[in-house]
Automatic annotation (TrEMBL):
Top EC class, one word: transferase
Catalytic activity as recorded in UniProt: D-erythrose 4-phosphate + phosphoenolpyruvate + H2O = 7-phospho-2-dehydro-3-deoxy-D-arabino-heptonate + phosphate
Organism: Arthrobacter horti
UniProt KW Transcription keyword: no
Pathway: Metabolic intermediate biosynthesis; chorismate biosynthesis; chorismate from D-erythrose 4-phosphate and phosphoenolpyruvate: step 1/7
A GO molecular function held by the record: 3-deoxy-7-phosphoheptulonate synthase activity
Pfam families for this protein: DAHP_synth_2
InterPro entries reported in the protein's UniProt record: Aldolase_TIM, DAHP_synth_2
Entry's EC annotation: 2.5.1.54
Protein's recorded name: Phospho-2-dehydro-3-deoxyheptonate aldolase
Length: 467
């Protein structure tokens, strides 16, 4: 989000004009999705609250600027061409309650630390992106949840209903879309302040490690930070100017699941005349909503943001080609990212035919691994979890496949937090099932904790460095 300031400096008039546009009402095709089949949408309890919320959202200021979105597309194009690496991480489901300065800053610090490990280890620019400031809507395997014989609607993310297991909390309340917008705005505000106001200065590389519990990954990071310090001191003595290190670009992303919300935040950019979904820089389509002729693909095919699509184990090469035709008909590097989430046991078999077909078609997509969603299991004591070894193994498999096909493994997409939670099993300072009882906090999927996130970053840096 340095890009806010860069874009605002270079292009301030256009950015502010774009900000004042509420438009998009008559833009052709933006509402075609409404007549198509659509999955995983809420059933709002009160139509009047829904109408009022959508109306208000459609005139509120954009959360991100079109100019920033364009910069991200260029950065992702570099990654698609093997010249940069995407690091995308954050909660499975953000909550309104956890949008506090402490929680947000520890997540941002952890992402910055992971990025330093990757940049230093791989000598590649790293694009930093949070699953943050809008990751509030969740697709679910089941519409309902039953506890002790009581059945209620499943939790679908704070933008739809509450996690508390009561009928009132689980009702689908459209007023929550406004709270999601405002929570996203304050989260983005804090991220922008952190990443442009000096907190992300590379000369503070040690500071980002403070406040986290000492552990093996922490120590390894500290030693790397010392190397970076030495390099910076050396370059400073040579007269290098480090002002540029004060700021980092940091982009926001979330799953574009709730199309009423996404549509209401879509604006026509005054510079280009194109629609941009201004709820976030990058949006992805989930594994459960990527049917070709359904609403999600149609809507996202019509906005200029860079788009991701999750590809699970049932994906075929032809599916991938059809997605490219719909979402990236002009074959524009940076436009389309495929986020594969096959499972550790399947990636080495399932990924190659897809990559081969895409490569043979001449398309240049960005390949990213999500080593989380194909590796979910239930622990003996009943928690949704993932084994850290499986996560690492899927990442290794992803690198092996791309190595053998001569394509570029361009990014890592993870569910993680900066907090010392116990949700995924294993790691260098191993988390066991008993720890879940006290330190399992996720309201949806299990996340890597601070240490597991750093450990994974070291693994990926090593694999990138080998290439
Ligand atoms: O985050 C992803 C999905 O929302 C999640 O994995 C679905 O989980 P469920 O199978 O518990 O509904
Ligand atoms: C729902 C998610 O993933 P997928 O669509 O890959 O299951 C997610 O990223 O939280
Ligand atoms: Mn998830």
């Amino acid at each position: 989000m340095t890009e806010l300031s860069t874009a605002a400096t270079n292009d301030s008039i256009a950015a502010f004009e774009a900000a004042s546009q509420s438009g998009a009402a008559d833009y052709p095709g933006l509402d075609t999705w409404r007549s198509l089949p659509i999955n995983q949408q809420p059933t709002w309890a009160d139509p009047e609250v829904f109408a009022a919320s959508v109306k208000e959202l459609s005139i509120l200021p954009p959360l991100v600027f079109a100019g920033e979105v364009d910069v991200l597309r260029e950065r992702l194009a570099a990654a698609a061409q093997g010249k940069a690496f995407l690091l995308q991480g954050g909660d499975c489901a953000e909550t309104f309650e956890a949008a506090t300065a402490d929680r947000i800053s520890s997540r941002v610090k952890t992402i910055l630390q992971m990025a330093v490990v990757l940049t230093y280890g791989a000598s590649l620019p790293v694009i930093k992106m949070g699953r943050m400031a809008g990751q509030f809507a969740k697709p679910r395997s089941s519409n309902d949840e039953t506890r002790d014989g009581v059945t209620l609607p499943a939790y679908r993310g704070d933008i739809v209903n509450g996690y508390d297991f009561t009928p009132e909390s689980r009702a689908h309340d459209a007023g929550r879309m406004l709270r999601a917008y405002h929570t996203s705005a304050s989260t983005l505000n804090l991220i922008r302040a952190f990443t442009t106001g000096g907190f992300a200065d590379l000369r503070l590389v040690h500071q980002w490690n403070k406040g986290f519990t000492a552990n093996p990954a922490h120590a390894r990071y500290e030693s790397l930070a010392k190397d970076i310090d030495r390099a910076i001191t050396f370059m400073q003595s040579c007269g290098a100017d480090f002002e540029a290190l004060r700021r980092v670009e940091f982009f926001a992303s979330h799953e574009a699941l709730l199309l009423d919300y996404e549509r209401a935040l879509t604006r026509i950019d005054s510079r280009t005349g194109f629609p941009y979904d201004t709820s976030s820089h990058f949006l992805w389509i989930g594994e459960r909503t990527r049917e070709l002729d359904h609403a999600h693909i149609d809507f996202l095919s019509r906005v200029r943001n860079p788009i991701g699509v999750k590809l699970g184990p049932s994906t075929t090469g032809d599916d991938a080609l059809r997605l490219i035709d719909k979402l990236d008909p002009n074959r524009e590097p940076g436009r389309l990212t495929f986020i594969t989430r096959m499972g550790a046991g399947k990636i080495r078999e399932n990924l190659p035919p897809i990559v081969e077909k895409v490569t043979a078609s001449g398309a240049q997509v960005l390949w990213v691994t999500d080593p989380m969603h194909g590796n979910t299991v239930t622990s003996k004591n009943g928690y949704k979890t993932r084994r850290f070894d499986d996560v690492m193994d899927e990442v290794r498999g992803f690198f092996e496949v791309h190595e053998s096909l001569g394509t570029f493994p361009g990014g890592l997409h993870v569910e993680m937090t900066g907090d010392d939670v116990a949700e995924c099993l294993g790691g260098a300072d191993p988390i066991d099932e008993a720890a879940f009882e006290d330190r399992y906090e996720s309201v949806c999927d299990p996340r890597l904790n601070h240490m597991q996130s750093l450990e994974l970053a070291f693994l990926v840096a090593g694999s990138l460095a080998k290439r």
